TrEMBL record:
It comes from Clostridium cylindrosporum DSM 605. This is UDP-N-acetylglucosamine 1-carboxyvinyltransferase. SUPFAM superfamilies: EPT/RTPC-like. Belongs to the EPSP synthase family. MurA subfamily. One of its GO terms (molecular function) is UDP-N-acetylglucosamine 1-carboxyvinyltransferase activity. Pathway: Cell wall biogenesis; peptidoglycan biosynthesis. It is an enzyme of class 2 (transferase).
Length: 419
């Protein structure tokens, strides 16, 4: 079993280049199959398990895919199948974007139920509601989501009952080729939604309003492949900001969009940590022990749920009491038990976690119970006294590119071992 072995207590310092956004990339790769002709080169692509998995899935659908350094070339013209039924589809959440993309391309799709992090109930009723509003008949049979139309999709008005990133993107994908206009109301506004819309528009789609809560998609009859560069990863950037603060270091992040990080910057400032914004860089530094704060996760532009877990580690060693209200995923506090194994003090009641800040943590073996819990454990290991072993790295590798190399370059003592 692979583990990350971390000798804690070293302040992080230096520069780190942030990779392309996972949650944009995992939607842009399925979106690329919508091109009727041409080859897309997707650049600034994170080299992580989720994009590697999508590479296989898209290739198995019939596309020609070439992996380059930090990029992928996709020629989707050979795709003739609307079936994504192989086991690898189950390995990640974002494979559900194949439903929207295949429905748009062929008017039909069969996709195995997606997997991903176990952070609570992850229904897809809002995705299905959108596809049905556009005229698809959707059923779930033996673990396969089947969506069929008689004569292609028709534009429709869809009001999302919950603000859902996945449903917004999936409905947007399907609507690109529907007949007429689709209006998505109460849409999610995350930066990756704008990025996917920009990519689709660059291929000839007609999407307006991405980044607001009303998105209008006029269906088009043809889309042509285009080259595209994925935005920087808001969550990876936030993870390094938090790690810099937790080790009381001085780290400059390169290749970031500071605007996307405002909610994190605001919280770090509230804790007494210094953050300086450049045009496409951010410096985070402190010498002091941070102050505890209250935090509520919210859809963008609120504080992202995907950083709640790394932030828990910082709050666990901050001064005084902190309260976290996790409003998106009810099962996203498993990392608190792991932090407690390292000496953190706190309790969880439903969607609320209360942490009583301790001076420091002490190293032991802890589990990455999901992707961002893994990031929380790595940060805990970086600050803890002694040696920390983080297990179950499959989760971490799904979403963080070369995590140990990036932290090593910042002065951490962290390496991957086989035990
Ligand atoms: C995306 O998941 C991200 N994953 C998640 O990041 C992220 O935590 C989440 O958005 C929220 O920001 C990807 O982009 C691949 P949602 P998604 O639909 O789309 C409820 C990470 O760590 N809901 O926005 O699956 C749902 O239960 C991952 O990188 C419904 O009720 O999340 C949740 O409470 C983990 N019905 C809320 O909406 C639906 O049909 C938000 O979910 C869909 C969602």
């Amino acid at each position: 079993m692979e583990k990350l072995l971390i000798e804690g207590g070293k302040k992080l310092s230096g520069k780190v280049k942030i990779s392309g956004a996972k949650n944009a990339a995992v939607a842009i790769l399925p979106a690329a199959i919508l091109a009727d002709h041409g080859v897309c080169t997707i650049d600034n692509l994170p080299d992580i398990e989720d994009t590697n998995c999508l590479e296989h899935i898209i290739r198995n659908l019939g596309a020609t895919v070439e992996k380059l350094d930090g990029a992928m070339k996709i020629d989707p013209t050979g795709i003739t199948s609307h079936l994504a039924l192989r086991d690898e589809v189950k390995r990640m959440r974002a494979s559900y974007y194949l439903i929207g993309a295949l429905l748009a391309k062929f008017g039909k799709a069969e996709v195995v139920f997606p997997g991903g992090c176990n952070i609570g109930v992850r229904p897809i009723d809002q995705h299905i509601k959108g596809f049905e509003a556009m005229g698809a008949k959707v059923s779930i049979e033996h673990g396969v989501i089947k969506a069929y139309t008689e004569n292609g999709l028709k534009g429709a008005n869809v009001y999302l009952d919950v603000v859902s990133v996945g449903a917004t993107i999936n409905i947007m994908l399907a609507a690109t080729r529907a007949e007429g206009t689709t209006i998505i109301e109460n849409a999610a506004k995350e930066p990756h939604i704008v990025d996917v819309a920009n990519f689709l528009n660059s291929m000839g789609a007609n999407i307006k309003g991405a980044g607001t809560d009303v998105i209008k998609v006029k269906g088009v009859t043809e889309m042509v492949a285009n080259d595209y560069s994925v935005i920087p990863d808001q969550i990876e950037a936030g993870t390094f900001m938090i790690a810099a603060a937790a080790t009381r270091g001085d780290v400059t992040l390169l290749n970031v969009i500071p605007k996307h990080l405002e909610s994190i910057t605001a919280k770090l400032l509230e804790m007494g940590i210094s953050v300086e914004e450049g045009e496409d860089s951010l410096r985070v530094y402190t010498n002091e022990r941070p102050k505890g704060i209250n935090l509520k996760t919210l859809p963008y532009p609120g504080f992202p749920t995907d950083l709640q877990q790394p932030m828990s580690t910082l709050l666990a060693i901050s001064e005084g009491r902190s309260m976290i209200n996790e409003s998106i995923w009810e099962g996203r506090f498993k990392h608190i038990d792991e932090l407690k194994k390292m000496g953190a003090s706190g309790k969880v009641e439903g969607k609320i976690a209360i942490l009583e800040g301790v001076e420091t943590l002490s190293g032991t073996e802890v589990e990455a119970t999901d992707l961002r819990a893994g990031a929380a454990m790595v940060i805990a290991g970086l600050v803890a006294k002694g040696t920390t072993r983080v297990t179950n790295l499959v989760h971490v590798d799904r979403g963080y590119e070369k995590i140990e190399d990036k932290f090593t370059a910042l002065g951490a003592s962290i390496r991957r071992i086989e035990e």
